[in-house]
Write a structure and sequence with these properties.
With 406 residues, the chain is of the alpha/beta class. It has 2 domains: 272 residues, Rossmann fold, CATH 3.40.50; 117 residues, no CATH class. It is 47% helix and 18% strand. Keywords: Methyltransferase, Transferase. This is DNA methylase. It holds the Pfam family UPF0020. It comes from Enhygromyxa salina.
Amino acid sequence: MAGKRQALSSVGGPVEARGDRAFRFPLVEAMRAQDESRDALGLTHGFHAYPARMHPAIARVILEELSLGPGSEVLDPFCGSGTVAVEALVGGWRSLGSDIDPLALRLARVKTDRRGPKARARFLDRLGAVAAASTRRVRERVDVRARLQAKERSWYEVHVLKELAGLLEEIRAVRDERDRLALEMVFSAIVIKFSRQRSETSARTSVKRVRKGLVTEFFVRKGEELANAWAELSAAIPSPHHAPRFVLSDARTLPHTLAGEYRCDLVLSSPPYGGTYDYLHHHARRHAWLGINPKQLRDKEIGARRHLSQGPRARAKAEPSSLARWDSQNRAVLESIAELLRPEGVAVLLVGDAEVAGQRVAADAQLERLAPDAELVVVAVASQARPDWRGGRPRSEHLVALRRSG
């Protein structure tokens, strides 16, 4: 790969870049934009927590720099909470997002919903009505049963469990589907906060003092936050615009799911960082409350820590098979991307170094090694060190640009 390695200063530390200058520049600019606006999410991006989502600034810069003009098509095969879709909507792109988790698609649809003043006012009226009914239930001690298994119920204090269950019953009674689905995502946004789960990405428990009525108060605050975010989004969307589309699919079988002549100009996505997260576990509280069957996520989640990271006793035996699995998963993703790209299309992937059976796997090097199997070639890379959540040596995060080699 041509190009001299360079280090550039940014708020988050030096960015090392190599490869084709035409692609190296936007990758570095995207990394720097992420650091310079780390807390400035804006639009609907900050409404709902979602582990390891792409920073909006990365998506914004890449979409601006690589646009081929109005109506260019971008695909995000790991759309998560819809970061790329929101930025594509504002940037005038056509977009398609896919994910294996139905929760992700529900959330992405709500976050990209264009709501004018009347629709926002109607939503706020329904939010208020649901909250008033929930407050009345709490005050009058209305008996309600959470439709959860015993193990799932154990994550909540009894009075919190009842308030959440009553709140969800009132949401489900809303007849307007559009508002009901949005209210469910507001509910989803507060579920973990009021559970005994310590954080979004930790399965450990912690003691939380929650007074009666606080759940409903936070529900209202989060709903109002969504309405305000919709107003900001609506003001930013150009006219005419292209509404995003979403499909439920494993990224590796997306060409089969689309079953047609779909092609895109750009793939922009952040695939899972190997051995780092378990979305099945991170969203377990939400899946249970919302009645989402996570079977596909359980069976086919890519890069899951439960599949790739092993305890010390198992590492020696598991290492070859775990590394082979991680290679196989990424090879299949690259093959899918290559099939969906137009001949002159570009793929930009935000990837992090993996932790597989106790071994660090450099994500950029892995993509360079596997890309030829999918008839792709890495044309540029921008890399920046990130703190290791375990307190060990830093991992690196990389923006990698690929093109078809044929």
